[in-house]
Structures are given as C-alpha cells and as structure tokens.
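Researcher: Sequence recovery benchmark, item below. Answer with residues only.
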C-alpha cells in the first residue's frame, strides 16, 4: 500500500494561511494511542487529507478548509472560535471536535449530514439549534454549556451517546424519540425529578450525579441499565430499582440515606458506593455478585450477621472505613467473627509539650527507684506499666519530630500536656542535636499551650472524620512545671476543654532542696497528680474492653501486650505476615483475615502496616515505638540533621530499604532523584541568601491562611513531599518555605482524557478538578510564630493571568486535603472524583473552626489585610447573613491581624463574599456574579437607568457592579480596567454610535473581554451599525435580546425616546433575559 510522500497542495495553502507548518502522520503509526497530535494531518492512499488536527492553535476563526472536501475527522478543540462557519462543503465529515471554544450558537452544521460524532462541550451555548439534519449522529456532547432546556434533538434517532452534563437543565424532556440511546449523561444540572426516560429502553449507562433529586423514580422500564450514578443528590431512600436486574454499578454516595434497602433483586450488582450518607447499619446487600463496596463517611455502628436474613443478629462494629478503600472484605470478615470473650486493652498516656518542659522527668518520677537525670527525649520513649494497665508515650518536643506523631494517636488515649512559662509562646530556639563536642545547633520551634491543645483536638477530630472514635471527646490533663521559678497561670478563655490543671515543681536547685516545707509541697503536688492520673486511667479502662475472637486475642496478646517479646529481640524489624500467622499458636484465621486485622490495627495506631503497597503488603512492624526509635537512631540519626535535610539515596537505602519505603509512605521523606529530602530536617529559611533572593520577585500573597491556634504537625512534610514530586524547573525548600514551578502542559491525549473525566462530577468540578494549563511560580510560606500560610503565585507564560484564580482554588484544596489527611494513595484518575467528593464532605461536615482566609482581592483595613472565617464562607446562607443576621446578603465579617499575628476582633469590617467565590463550593456564593459595564460617556442617562435596573439584584447579593466611576481614588485607570474585566463574570455593553466610536472600548475593553472568554451581554441603546462589530454581533444575534433602538421607540430626528415607559419596558425585558441567561432565574 503506497501513500504520497509530498505535502498536498491544500495543506501548503492552509499552512500559508495559518502561519505554521503541519506534520504529516500518514506514515507514522504512533499517533499517541490513536489521538493525533495538534498541527497534524493524515492522508488516504490517493493523497487526500482525511484527518486534520488544529486543536490548541489559538484560532479565533475556522480557517478556509474548502479544498479539503474528503476530510473525515476535524479537530478544532481548545481554540477561541466564536462561530461555526465555512464547513458547508465538508460533507464527508464523520467526526467534528469543537470542544472548549467560545461558540455561542450551534448553527452552521446543517450540511454535514454524514457526521457521526459531534463534540461542542465547554462552549457558551444557551440553546440547541441547527442540528435537525444531522440524522446520522451517534455521539453528541453538549456538556459544560449554558443550556436551560432540551430541545431540537427529536430527529437524531440514531444517537447512542448523549452528554448534557454541566448545564442548567431543570427537567428531562424531548428525548422520547432517541430510542437507540445507550449512554445518557445528565450530571451537574438542576434536575429535581427523574422523568421522560420511559422510552429509552436501550439505555445502559445513566449518570444523574450532582442534581437535586429527592426520589428514585421513572426507571422501571430501563431494564438494560448496567451503570447508574445518583451520587450527590438529596435522596433519602433506595427505591424503584427492582426491575434493573442487569445493573452492575450503582453509585449512591453523598445523599441522605439512613437505611440500605431495595437492592434484593440486583443479583448482578458488582460495585456499590454508599459512602457519605447517614447509615448506621450494614445490611440487605446483594449476596452473590458484589465485588466492591464503599461505605466510608457513615457512622456504622452495626453489621447484620446475614444479609439474606433481615432479622439476623446485629453485630457491634468497631471497623474503620477509610475514604479510598474497598470495604467488602472487612465487612464479610466481620460477619464471620465468633467472639469468645473480652480483652482489656492498655490505656495510652501521651506526654506532649515543648522540649525541656518536664515530660521525661515526670515519667521517671513514676518509678520508685531513682533514675539518672534525663536529657531531652529525641523522638519517642515508651514506658509500659502493667500495674496501671497503661503505656506511657514520651514524645520528643523538637518540631522536626512532629511528623511521625500521628501514627500513635488512638481512641481513648489520655493526654498530658506539660508546659513552662519560658517556652509558652510560638517562637524560635536552638538546641544541640548532634554529637557531644559538635557545635552544630539546629533551629527549633517552640509552641504555646493553645497550639498543643489544638493538636490534641485536631487528632481527635481526625479520628472522628475517619470513623475511628465515638468517645465523648479529648481527655486532657495540663501540667505547668517549674513551680519553683514561675507563678501559676491557668488557662483563660480557651475554647478547649481540659479535665484538670496542675502546678508542680519536678526538680529544684540544690540550695532549695534543703527547705523541708518546699519538699513537702512538691511531694504533695506530685502525689496528687499521680493519684489523679491513676483515677483517669481507671475511668478510661472501663471503655477499653473489647469483644474478641480466639484468633484476635492471640494477635492482640502477641502485639499489644508484648507476649513472646523476648523471642523478638530485634523488634524494629518487620515480620512477614505468613510467618507471623504461624508464630501465633492461637491464631486460626486465614492469611487474608490476618491482613485485614493488621490493617485495622494500623488505623487504630497499634502497628505499622501498609496493605495496599506492593512493596510492603506482606510486612508488618509490630513494635512501632521500637521501629521509630530505630529510624531516628540508625537511619535518620542526629548526625543526619546536620546534613540539612538532604542525603544521598545510597546512604539511606543501605540501612534498610523497607523502612525507607515506609518513610516515603508516611511523608517523612521523598524521593528527589539521586537523593532523599527529609523535610522535617531542613533548616529554617531565615538568614539564607537564596531565600532572600527568591522572595524579591513576589509582591503580595494571593491567599493567606490564618490559624487561630495551630498548624498541624507534619503539614510541612506533606507540602514538600507533594509538590516536590515531578520534574520542576525550580524546587527549593526549607522547613518553613517552599518555592517550586507548577507545570501543567498536558498532551493532546491528556486533553481528551481530561475532557472525558468522570462525567458524574459537577461542571465546576470539571473546571477545577485539575490545575489549569501553563507554568506558574509558586511560593508557600509558613510562619509558625504567627500561624499563617501565605501562598504567592506568579504566571510564567504569557496570556494565562486569568487562570490564577483557578490555581488559587487548587492550591487551597490541596492544603486543606493535607490538613484532613485526604490525599488518596496515588494521583490515579480513579481517585480524583472520590477525592473531590470527600473534600466537599469534609468542608461541609467537619469545618476548620479556627481557620481564617484572606485574598489579594480584599480591601485593606488601616493597611492591614482582612481575614474571614472559612467555615462562615462555606456555610453562608443569604437568608441568614453572617451570624444569623438578616439583611446582610453577600457580606461576611473580616478581621485584620495584630502585630503578634492574633486576630484583631475589635476592628471587624464588612467584607464582600464574592472575593471568595472561586475558593468555595457554596452555591449561594457561586451564584453571585460580577458585572462590568462598558459604556460611552455620552450615554450617562442610559447608564443611570441601567444601574437602577441592576440595583435590586445587587441588594440581594446576587451580583456586584463595576464601571469606571467606581475606580478608587489613587488607582491607575488602565490597570484597574484590565483587572476588573479579568475578574468579571459578565461584560454588559451599552451599545450606541458613541460607544462604537470610542477606541478605548472597541480596541481594548471588548478585545480583552473576548480574549479572556468573558460572557458579553450587549444592549443596543440607539440606532447604530452594531452588526459591523464582530464581537458584539456574534453574541447579540445568539442572545436574540430586545433592542431599545427599534423605530417605534426612538425618534431619530430628535434623538429622544417616544415614551419613557416604553423605554423602561424594554429595560425590563432586557433584565428578564439577563436573569434567565446569566443568573439562571426564570421569571
């Protein structure tokens, strides 16, 4: 088979018009998995072009393609095309890709009757029109537009796939004739009922995620359905599915379901998602076919012992269901358990506080025998007290150890917070951490009591988020040490609850130890503390008795109680799961059951086990404290701290490659090519010349997060490990600063995959699910003293400034997900939708009460930035306003910071919520629009009427208005206009002869609005040649709006309106159209 070797004449002419060369892929079998790259073409045997890819070429118009009459596939996606024209002769076209352009009308395709696939997703369509003749269409994608009704599809009876997700549809209609449909996507609309689908009996996939459905109905005749997605609605019952016996995938997450029911007849169901509902009992599940079950985000208290018997025993459940796992095996294993008795678990007593605050001294005081004077604990010291049935965990207070603490927090722990006045502040210090005689001292951070209490509260919340804890709250004793030198200072006005506060002197200077009165007082204070400690342990002990099987008892005794510990001399080494099973004489369950038990023990903070990691799934570390101490004495030993957080791979891996992998999974280290970065051991940036140089290129932070009490331990580790991955042009990290290049330049294949990402997600999720294209310099600055995280973003590429808001949103989402430990096991696409759903759930149900946020868009208060509580933004209700006050629509309360970093709540300022629109999923704020009004100075009378028309909407908090007279004094007009247009949602243009003759508007404002893909909403005030302005005419014709310049309204000789009432009537119609098409309010 031979193909021409020279470029066809039609391609040469096209290249001349386009100004760039096209690559011939006719002879290239590698087309990126069947997806040709941009700026390419393919010919048939006769040398005729049959495929052409001009995607992502910045085209504003469709080029002249008349010479390519044999073209079968045309890709014009990701351009700036606003109208479809010039395709009439391409009657052989079978596939046309026009997604992600600026097209406002689907007219112009009438002659392409051989089209089989048409993609118009991600445009600005408000109506479906001009498709009636395309009767051979099999696939039609209209997702991500602004459609409000389904119309004009009746003749497309060969359609097999239809995507209408991400529009503003309120009802399902007009689909009755499309009986060949196999796939229908309606996610991310405003549907309240399932209707109009009765005739679509060939449907195999139906996606209705992210609507407002309250019932499952109207599906009885869709007996061929195989996949049904109903997540993120308002469903309260599972019903109406009895006839769908071929269903194998059912998604019902993020609803309001309280019972599992109505699934009995779904004998082929393989995958069921019930996560994030209000379920308390697992029951009534299909028996024969289920392979994957997800129930995370519920409050599961019981599991029915038999799913086929509705009256079978309810088994109390203490399983933990993570967000990204398949929970079926754990549930089935739980059903088969046969408890044989109870087991009392030892109480964990967690000793926390800054270094040198007295933790180790107190722990020694519990022993009757005298111990040598302790130094500052590095990492972790564990003392087991069988007489108290408690294990004491003495954590090193140095901040570079905090990242590993979370592995040991568990249900029912007792916390003892030790503090002394000198260190009771968020401040910097130094401590010698290397060998004696070495002058090297590492900078460390001290934290105040609120910080440590916040950490305990945070750990408790994390367990509740994951379903790991249903106890009544934190158990905290606060101990002020050094009573010999400091006055007693109890907590005042704290939001944290503690069981009791103590005031003791653990040691005194030699000159004071002779004073018998002081000795008696010290002994009495310590004795009282010991007695109260014993009482608290006894109180908690009653709640730490659990039912166990014989095998579980053997496992718990072997691991937790330390039976046969003497046989395990090197307890820091991992045990092989198969070998462990045989070592425990009383363990009779299968290896799969053992792995399930070990995973649950890991989630409860008792072992280190990673069941989903291919390198470590057969290994378990049974003694976490010994393992962690070994890590910090033999692998990340003190001498490595002197290496400033960077170490060659070979140095670590020769120690223990399995532990190195464990440290990667726990985000303690990350792989940086030929070396490992240890974020917690990096130096602080203060005084580093490189840091001083890098920060010079940034002006002000885009967003700033302010925590009232604390920033979670290990957050810096997660940030560096997360953003340090990949090939970045610049990566520079300190323990409190991150500089990196954010690069997102997806290939054509990735473009297509991204566009076709999980269609069950909202349209806004599609927009914000990934970072926008382009390169950005990012600086994240952590200030542990003021408890702030500042995020700076600087675009590198030209023309991407308008995408910075999207980068801000994604960075905030990442940081919050790290706060909640909501990062999935990998960035695999199958986790993206789940992560997004989980993110929404956490922000709604587990708000971070002490987190405030500021953006560069907010006004200043006495030259200080204002901070608004993030939870108040996410939960804003326009009918209640801030703090439940009516009448303050669209307004929140902002506070500036004092010099010490605390919020100045005496300087509360009203702040517009619209500045946070891109940072929240709150639909009330999402509806708020910013309107930029472009007008001529000669039309000020009409501008006045325009402003009066918009005033009621502005008062309701539905929009904010900008026009040039609202420019603040001192601001430069040109940069301000550019900024306001880039931030606007809609550009309202008051069209008149004077406006069309104003160069600033026609050459700057309107082209900029078009370039930034802004919605342009023109209103023709007076007779003029508006048709000659391609920007106005393109959108005005599609809007089909009212025209104030009609002959019956306007006296051309006098230049005045015949009747003011008629004029206002036209404005009324204009506003009705605006509300319907911009605010999606039907009047």
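Model:
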């Amino acid at each position: 088979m031979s193909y021409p070797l020279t470029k066809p004449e039609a391609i040469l002419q096209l290249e001349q018009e386009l100004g760039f060369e096209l690559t011939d892929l006719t002879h290239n079998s590698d087309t990126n998995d069947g997806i040709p790259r941009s700026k390419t073409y393919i010919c048939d045997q006769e040398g005729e072009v049959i495929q052409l890819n001009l995607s992502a070429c910045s085209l504003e118009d469709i080029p002249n393609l008349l010479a390519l009459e044999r073209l079968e596939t045309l890709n014009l996606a990701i351009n700036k095309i606003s109208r479809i024209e010039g395709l009439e002769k391409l009657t052989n076209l079978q596939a046309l890709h026009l997604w992600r352009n600026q097209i406002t009308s689907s007219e112009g395709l009438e002659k392409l009757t051989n089209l089989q696939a048409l993609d118009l997703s991600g445009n600005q369509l408000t109506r479906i029109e001009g498709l009636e003749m395309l009767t051979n269409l099999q696939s039609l994608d209209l997702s991500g537009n602004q459609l409000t009704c389904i119309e004009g599809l009746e003749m497309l009876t060969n359609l097999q796939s239809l995507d209408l997700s991400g529009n503003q549809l309120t009802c399902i209609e007009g689909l009755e004739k499309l009986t060949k449909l196999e796939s229908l996507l309606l996610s991310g609309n405003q549907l309240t009922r399932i209707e109009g689908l009765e005739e679509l009996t060939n449907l195999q996939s139906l996606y209705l995620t992210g609507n407002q459905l309250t019932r499952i109905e109207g599906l009885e005749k869709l007996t061929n359905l195989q996949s049904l997605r109903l997540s993120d609605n308002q469903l309260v019952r599972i019903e109406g599915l009895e006839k769908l016996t071929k269903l194998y995938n059912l998604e019902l997450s993020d609803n309001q379901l309280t019972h599992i029911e109505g699934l009995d007849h779904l004998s082929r169901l393989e995958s069921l998602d019930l996560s994030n509902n209000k379920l308390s009992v697992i029951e009534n599940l299909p028996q024969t076919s289920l392979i994957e079950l997800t129930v995370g985000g519920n409050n599961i208290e019981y599991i029915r012992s038999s799913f086929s018997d509705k009256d079978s025993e309810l088994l109390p459940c203490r399983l933990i269901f993570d967000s990204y796992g398949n929970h079926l095996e754990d549930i089935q294993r739980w059903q088969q358990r046969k408890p044989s008795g109870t087991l009392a678990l030892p109480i964990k007593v967690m000793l926390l506080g800054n270094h040198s605050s007295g933790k180790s001294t107190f722990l020694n005081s519990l022993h009757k025998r005298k111990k040598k004077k302790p130094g500052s604990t590095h990492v972790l010291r564990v003392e087991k007290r069988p007489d108290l049935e408690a294990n004491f965990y003495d954590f090193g207070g140095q901040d570079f150890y905090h990242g590993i603490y979370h592995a040991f927090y568990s249900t029912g722990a007792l916390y003892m917070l030790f503090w002394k006045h000198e260190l009771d502040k968020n401040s910097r210090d130094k401590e010698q951490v290397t060998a004696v005689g070495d002058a090297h001292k590492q900078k460390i951070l001290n934290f105040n009591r609120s910080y440590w209490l916040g950490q305990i509260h945070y750990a408790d919340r994390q367990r509740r988020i994951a379903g790991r804890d249903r106890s009544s709250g934190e158990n905290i004793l606060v101990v002020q040490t050094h009573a010999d030198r400091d006055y007693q200072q109890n907590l005042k006005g704290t939001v944290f609850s503690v069981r009791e506060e103590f005031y003791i002197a653990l040691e005194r200077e030699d000159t004071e130890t002779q004073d018998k009165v002081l000795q008696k007082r010290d002994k009495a204070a310590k004795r009282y503390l010991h007695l109260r400690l014993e009482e608290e342990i006894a109180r908690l002990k009653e709640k730490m008795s659990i039912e166990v099987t014989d095998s579980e008892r053997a496992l718990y005794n072997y691991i937790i109680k330390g039976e046969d510990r003497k046989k395990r001399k090197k307890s820091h080494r991992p045990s092989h799961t198969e070998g462990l099973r045989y070592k425990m004489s009383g363990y009779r369950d299968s290896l799969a059951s053992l792995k399930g038990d070990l995973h649950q023990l890991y989630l409860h903070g008792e072992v280190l086990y990673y069941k989903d990691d291919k390198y470590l799934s057969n290994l378990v570390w049974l003694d976490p404290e010994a393992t962690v101490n070994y890590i910090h004495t033999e692998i990340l030993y003190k001498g490595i701290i002197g290496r400033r957080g960077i170490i060659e791979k070979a140095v670590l891996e020769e120690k223990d490659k399995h532990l190195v992998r464990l440290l990667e999974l726990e985000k303690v280290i990350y792989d940086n090519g030929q070396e490992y970065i240890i974020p917690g051991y990096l130096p602080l940036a203060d005084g580093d010349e490189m840091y001083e140089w890098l920060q010079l290129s940034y002006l002000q932070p885009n967003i700033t997060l302010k925590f009232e009490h604390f920033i979670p331990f290990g957050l810096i580790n997660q940030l560096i490990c997360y953003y340090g991955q990949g090939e970045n042009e610049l990566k520079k990290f300190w323990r409190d600063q991150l500089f990196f290049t954010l690069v997102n330049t997806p290939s054509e294949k990735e473009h297509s995959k991204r566009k076709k990402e999980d269609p069950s997600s909202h349209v806004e999720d599609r927009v914000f699910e990934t970072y926008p294209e382009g390169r950005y310099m990012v600086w994240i600055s952590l200030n542990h003293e003021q408890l702030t995280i500042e995020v700076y973003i600087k675009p590198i590429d030209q023309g991407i400034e308008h995408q910075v808001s999207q980068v801000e949103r994604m960075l905030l989402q990442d940081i919050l997900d790290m706060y909640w430990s909501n990062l999935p096991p990998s960035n695999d696409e199958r986790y993206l939708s789940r992560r997004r759903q989980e993110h929404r759930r956490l922000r709604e149900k587990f708000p971070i009460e002490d987190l405030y946020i500021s953006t560069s868009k907010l006004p200043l208060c006495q030259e200080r930035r204002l901070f608004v509580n993030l939870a108040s933004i996410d939960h804003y209700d326009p009918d209640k306003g801030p703090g439940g006050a009516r009448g303050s629509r669209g307004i929140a309360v902002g506070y500036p910071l004092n010099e010490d970093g605390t919020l100045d709540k005496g300087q509360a300022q009203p702040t517009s919520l619209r500045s946070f629109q891109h940072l929240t999923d709150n639909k009330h704020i999402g509806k708020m629009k910013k309107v930029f009004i472009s007008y001529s100075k000669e039309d000020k009378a009409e501008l006045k009427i325009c402003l009066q028309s918009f005033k009621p909407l502005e008062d309701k908090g539905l929009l904010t208005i900008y026009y040039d007279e609202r420019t603040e004094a001192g601001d430069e007009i040109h940069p301000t206009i550019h900024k306001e247009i880039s931030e606007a949602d809609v550009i309202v243009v008051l069209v008149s002869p004077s406006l069309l003759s104003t160069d600033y508007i026609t050459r700057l404002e309107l082209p900029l609005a078009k370039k930034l893909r802004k919605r342009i909403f023109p209103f023709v005030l007076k007779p003029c040649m508006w048709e000659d302005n391609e920007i106005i005419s393109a959108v005005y014709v599609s809007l089909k709006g009212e025209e104030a310049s009609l002959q019956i309204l306007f006296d051309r000789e006098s230049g005045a309106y015949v009747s003011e009432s008629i004029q206002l009537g036209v404005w009324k119609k204009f506003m009705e159209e605006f509300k319907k098409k911009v605010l999606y309010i039907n009047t």
